[in-house]
Design brief:
mainly alpha
Amino acid sequence: MIALATILVGLRFVGKVVGNLAWRWMPFEPRARNPLLGLALLSQGGLTLVLAMDFHFLYSADLGRTEITLIVISAVVVAVLANELLSPLFIRGLFPSFEPIEESAR
């Protein structure tokens, strides 16, 4: 399950980097030159979990697939959690100038 979750996180990571490569050559986005810019959107949200649960409900009646279904569901949940934890780190790494500024006391 951990191996499958790691593969899911890795595939999402590679997809975000490869999917963003074309932005460096777009003339209308001069500030989007960093090839890692897609990693700022690494988080997935709740739709992935809904799809995983739908997968579980579709195949839970088949007793021959119960174990593999639970492994897939667990791997998806772990991958979503890993992506949600990694996303803020990449956002701060890609946009260090957007750190919150403390207001001085008046």
